[in-house]
């Protein structure tokens, strides 16, 4: 039953990412963590995120802002190794709490949808990349920092979607490389990849009938429920 719930979240997350450019790991990450464990769950989320970013980028890469992606990538390269050190330093229960807490904070910040001046300019891009890289390798939720950067710079959605896919490719590749000790059940990986492909097809259809803002709201609501559940499980395991 938990596998079914996780795979449904993977499908929905992939569909939402196809519509909005973000949302996959916010929706699927907390449930993958609950099904597996904080380490392997985030690794699987990173692998699937890399796959989604590559597929979404193929038809949209001509609209990517490559200079912006390069600035964001500076922060990512610096912060991913730091986040990986923290992942290996924490035990499973503390890592679960960290995953849930970071996701909750990211969702709450993203729900505000208020442009923040700190994310503007070259320094703002590097800062956003740093937050995204750190939260991606530790909790699989690098999207909200990029969303806040997009809001602050008023980047059009047509450019935002491919630009963040470029960044996601680098972030997830580094995050996966930083965790060589993964142990993933092959049937779940295969099923998750199939659900990603299904979700992307569904997302392509949803683009015609649902506004990106509504899709983002749905993704954030589901992400908040999942992150609170992950945090509660970690606290309970730690106390008991």
Q: What does this entry look like structurally?
A:
By secondary structure, this protein is mostly helical. The chain has one domain. It is 82% helix and 0% strand. It contains ten helices and no strands. α3 packs across α8 and α6 runs antiparallel to α7. The chain is globular, with a radius of gyration of 16 Å. It starts with a helix and ends with a helix. The mean pLDDT is 81.
Layout of helices and strands:
Elements lengths: L1 H19 L3 H12 L2 H20 L8 H24 L2 H21 L8 H19 L3 H11 L3 H21 L8 H21 L5 H28 L1
Are there runs of 5+ residues with pLDDT below 50, and where? none
DSSP E strands, number: 0
What amount of the residues lies in strands?
A: under 5%
Radius of gyration: 16 Å
* Helix vs. strand class: mainly alpha
N- and C-termini, Cα separation:
24 Å
Largest sheet: none
Number of helices: 10
State the helical fraction: over 70%
Given the C-alpha coordinates, what overall shape results? globular
Total discrete domains: 1
Run of helices and strands: HHHHHHHHHH
Residue-averaged pLDDT, rounded? 81
């Amino acid at each position: 039953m938990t596998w079914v719930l996780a795979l449904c979240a993977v499908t929905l997350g992939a569909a939402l990412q196809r519509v909005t450019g973000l949302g996959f790991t916010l929706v699927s990450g907390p449930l993958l963590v609950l099904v597996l464990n904080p380490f392997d769950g985030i690794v699987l989320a990173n692998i699937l995120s890399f796959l989604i970013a590559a597929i979404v980028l193929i038809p949209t890469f001509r609209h990517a802002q490559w200079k912006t992606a390069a600035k964001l990538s500076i922060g990512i390269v610096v912060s991913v190794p730091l986040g990986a050190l923290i992942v290996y330093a924490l035990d499973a229960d503390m890592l679960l709490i960290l995953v849930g807490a970071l996701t909750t904070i990211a969702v709450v910040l993203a729900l505000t949808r208020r442009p923040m001046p700190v994310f503007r300019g070259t320094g703002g891009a590097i800062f956003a990349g740093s937050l995204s890289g750190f939260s991606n390798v530790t909790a699989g939720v690098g999207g909200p920092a990029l969303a806040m950067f997009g809001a602050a710079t008023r980047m059009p959605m047509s450019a935002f979607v491919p630009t963040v896919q470029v960044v996601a490719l680098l972030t997830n590749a580094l995050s996966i490389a930083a965790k060589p000790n993964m142990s993933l059940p092959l049937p779940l990986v295969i099923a998750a990849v199939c659900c990603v492909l299904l979700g992307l097809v569904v997302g392509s259809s949803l683009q015609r009938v649902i506004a990106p803002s509504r899709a983002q709201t749905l993704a954030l609501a589901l992400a908040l429920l999942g992150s609170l559940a992950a945090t509660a499980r970690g606290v309970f395991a730690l106390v008991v």
